[in-house]
Amino acid sequence: MIEVSSEEIISQKTLPYDIYDEAGIKILEAGEILTPGKILLVRNYEVLFRKELKEEEEQEVNEIKEKVIETPEQEQETIEDFGPINKKSKLDFQSQYELKCDYNNAMDFFNRNDVIRAKSMILETRDKIIKNSQLIRKNAKFFSELKLLGEYKNIHPLNTAIYSVFLANKLEYNEAQIMEIALSALLHDIGKCKLEGEIAVLSKMTKEEEIAYKNHPIVGHKLIKTELKLNENIARVALQHHERMDGTGWPYGISSTMISEYAQIIAVCNYFDNMTSTNANLEISNFREALRALLKVGSKAFSPKPLYAFVHMLNYGDSATFEELKL
Length: 327
Prior knowledge:
- The two termini are 28 Å apart.
- By secondary structure, this protein is mostly helical.
- The protein has a two-stranded antiparallel sheet with strand order 1-4. A two-stranded antiparallel ribbon has the order 2-3.
- The longest helix is centred in the middle third of the chain and has 22 residues, at 115-136.
- It has helices spanning 6-10, 36-43, 55-66, 73-81, 93-111, 115-136, 152-170, 175-187, 207-213, 216-227, 232-240, 261-275, 287-297, 304-312; strands at residues 2-4, 19-20, 26-28, 48-50.
- The chain contains 14 helices and 4 strands.
- The protein folds into 2 domains: 2-75, no CATH class; 82-326, Orthogonal Bundle (Hypothetical protein af1432), CATH 1.10.3210.10.
């Protein structure tokens, strides 16, 4: 086997030879087009190899290299736009990239009023989240192994959906319910797309900004019903995910069983991802501290059943810091 640099590989449009990792496992096959996702995959291996080629095979490779068209600069930038890969994740590099790319594209279509294509891509993203969650459920031990990294507004709905699917499985919801819960989580913050400018931390908003921000659940409920034409179970999550069991939430200050079961589940996952994301204003540096903070807020805010199921669905001793995930 001959060592080959990642830069040599990604300088090509089409692979002229098979690529292997240190264990001799084939990563990519000869003839594959190097899409942004595959380039991202290659970049995350420190050492890669190809088989030693015969003289005539080497000549063919050189001929292919002469015809190489470098990956466009714009395509390279697209990879960067979706943020870093979580190297501790149980989701492989390609799956992380695809989820981020698909959701980002869906929201681009939605913001351009191409609702049909947006809805189709959102449903595809939901299905990928459910499929990937099923594949990694038995191997995942820590919350840090589930989290996607990147810009908050693009990543938060995905993380909330992944956590929600895990929690719904823990609570033994059926397949149809899990599909609704995953979709509800993906869309719970869709009302924010109508907010102007960047979203600041709530405590740092002006009074006018706070009023507009606290209206996003109502806006989201309307968008899901009238634009995406989805059912009330899903729309109600957007409306109620900031409500609290003791009635101190918003926008309506409802409490207890007035909050839908789906919203109770997603409220826990939403809050946890907020604490473990860069926009959080809490002094929390790792996932174990975030779980403790979630328990401290406790059943005054969250329904006990999903709260305690969430805390115990994975290993509590998750000491991974947020910065370590990027290493």
